[in-house]
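Narrative of activities, Objective 1.

The group set out to show that a structural description can be obtained from nothing but a protein's sequence at a throughput compatible with the screening campaign. Below is one input-output pair from the validation batch, recorded exactly as produced.
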Amino acid sequence: MVSVPLFKDLEKAPKDLLGKDYDTQNSLKIKAKACDNKITTEIGSSSTKLTCEMPPVGGATMQKFSVSTKDDLSYEMEADNMLVDGLMVKFSTAETVGKGFQGPDKLTFDYQQKNDQYSAHAVVAASPSDIVTYDLSGVGAFEGGLFGLQLLGSKDKPLSGANAALGYSTSDLSVVMKTNKMFTGANVFGQYKLDGSTTLAMKVAGKLDGSSAPDCTVGGKWKMDSSTSLAFKMCTGNKLGLSLSQKLQPNLDVITAAEIPMSGSVKIGASFTLSN
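Output recorded for this entry:
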């Protein structure tokens, strides 16, 4: 059986289908992968990012080291299973060029366990300014049904947020509702695999008190052949999104996305991925 997803990943599949390949913020984005995809370089119109997967060090797997120019200079390092199985430790910071090396400004401990009946997740983060936050969550499963709970807090405010989730999942259908903002709002995600080549998805987001109209998004993805897929989504506000993914060569993937409002200018973005 497939393991129960973490609370933060309950809606991941339909959320990715409705948003992952619709990037129109960059008119051109190039991603190059080298050394068996362990080194990735991303060049976009607003930033450049270099990410490296590191070899095991002292029994721990150094998962990622990255540097970005988006905030002058920022970096983060992740190490999996550093102390115990299931624990990830991450150091991250954003440096300002010209002010000298300031060192890590955030330390995060992320622990998770999953099996086919439950998942547990605990995240504790701390910074030099003595700001400590936590995120505790758990998900249980029974005969296709899913139920979860999340608690958020900090050193100054032990309980700053609480959310719940209910869902149902089979091999071809998944529906999940997650609350947000202390049970004042909710998002409903759904996905249905029509056949081996077509998948449909939807999202409804709104306030539980009905004080405003919900935002709705419906879409789908059609795998035309082994190397080409076409995706679409229609959002509240009469905005259409299109995405075409193509594998032109074994080591070259191209994604072209467009955002087409009923009134206003059309946005188009393209990304190329090169791998060795």
